[in-house]
Amino acid sequence: MRAMSERINGCGRERSKVIEMDLFIKLIMLMIFFGVMIGIGLYCRRHATDVNGFVLGGRSVGPWLTAFAYGTSYFSAVVFVGYAGQFGWKYGIAATWAGLGNAFLGSLLAWAVLGRRTRIMTQHLDSATMPQFFGERFESKPLKLAASAIIFIFLIPYTASLYNGLSRLFGMAFAIDYSVCVIVMAVLTGIYVIAGGYMATAINDFIQGIIMIFGIVAVVFAVLNSQGGFLAALDKLASVSDETVSAAPGVFNSFFGPDPVGLLGVVILTSLGTWGLPQMVQKFYAIKSESAINKGMIISTVFATIVSGGCYFLGGFGRLFSDKIDIAANGYDSVVPTMLSGLPTILIAVVVILVLSASMSTLSSLVLASSSTLTLDFIKGNIKKEMDEKEQVRWMRALLVVFIAISVVLALIQYRSNVTFIAQLMGVSWGALAGAFLAPFLYGLYWKRTTKAACWVSFMFSTVVMLANIFFRSSFPAYLQSPINAGAFCMLAGLVIVPVVSVLTKAPDQKILEEIFSCYEKKVTVSVKDSIGDQT
């Protein structure tokens, strides 16, 4: 008995040592990660001494940094944990279409259509934010203030949602309280953004993007390997059935899944939505040249294909772990963490850093967009009539702290008390922002006839519809009760509303329009030594 007791105690000590070593490895990797992020923020302080440097990095950011900043702002823990788990469970392997839509519609086409014109016109109008663009392009200060208010209302709850995907992963990897995780992430993100502004964010986004690429590739291979490889996993998925979803056999490994119409709504919202999100479009303001835009477009598309395509592809195999997942009790956010729980220690550490990278990059982009918008478009010229460059930067830094603090409070309230209102508001934020801004911004760049009245109608239509979706969801048609589908509907409706209202309302002043659109016409003077004149 004594010998057996000693063996048991010995096994317990060995297990304890293994657990301690695993935790040590994870903590060391996190410490290195955080140290690099903060170091870059402090290094970039010299780029953040004026408004142009703090908000746009001096409009001199290269294609690699801009492309990765665009991609890492696009994909966060919401996508990796929330959307990949939810839509992978609902649509199976067909959820990969959402990732491909993000790559080709949300990245490639967005850069091709918006990149060059956004960069040129925003510099011509001297606008650093989306509300400033609307105010200058349509000569309307109230329009600028309204855009600023919409951003403030809907970006803050979206910011709070970034923390949600971290709770289960950190609980799985470290058994650390969610509150500690949220506060540490917020503080560290705040330090490097406040210190270095956009340039620090862009450089950190580049590093975080590399981590995301290697991380998602490694995780996909590891999870498929645990199921016997790709073909074996597909075969297993073909045998999965769910009568509540579809009676068709093998529907979860089919080309379009059990609900192609619902999947289309996901593709539209998560892909076309980037065209109207201020934190995404603002990346085009900062890129340094036209050639950089063309390079950035390709880099961004490849990045999105790997990261977003990989996330949704991974989530598509979630039902293979259905014996370990209780959707009714734990929700869709439990799908991906459960899939990853059996991975080796080093891979779990990579996953944690991957999700941290995705969340911190998006968080930094959101709070920078929010603070710059509120300072430049609301406080400056309204609450404070005169503000020099240094004072504007001080206000933006102070508001960064405020926005991060509010997002932390909202995230903790939701986690502790399950306040569903906050969760619903976060769900509709993409639809409200992109629905309000996409069409006015797109037509404003290309079509001289776009009117101020059309912008107002687009703003009001999308915000009213998405807010109504929170409070009166049951009154909506069945298809539009989903915030995803309602958001996609608002974006597509805006593309019709803006031209129709523009045609029916008074045209803008032609002379002003000619001056605004003159930025697209570059005149070149050529010296000619010899010429052939008219012969008589």
Report how far the terminal alpha carbons are from each other: 123 Å
Proportion in helices: over 70%
Helical segment count: 21
| Rg (C-alpha, Å) | 25 Å
Largest sheet: none
Can you describe what's shown?
With 536 residues, the protein is mainly alpha-helical. It has helices at residues 2-43, 51-56, 63-74, 77-91, 96-124, 130-137, 141-161, 164-173, 178-226, 230-238, 260-272, 278-286, 290-315, 327-330, 335-340, 345-379, 389-417, 420-446, 452-471, 483-504, 510-517. Helix 1 runs parallel beside helix 16, helix 6 (130-137) runs antiparallel to helix 7 and helix 9 crosses helix 17 (389-417). The longest helix is centred in the middle third of the chain and has 49 residues, at 178-226. It is globular. Residues 528-536 have low confidence and may be disordered.
Question: Can you lay out the helices and strands and say which pair or pack?
Answer:
Elements: H1 2-43, H2 51-56, H3 63-74, H4 77-91, H5 96-124, H6 130-137, H7 141-161, H8 164-173, H9 178-226, H10 230-238, H11 260-272, H12 278-286, H13 290-315, H14 327-330, H15 335-340, H16 345-379, H17 389-417, H18 420-446, H19 452-471, H20 483-504, H21 510-517
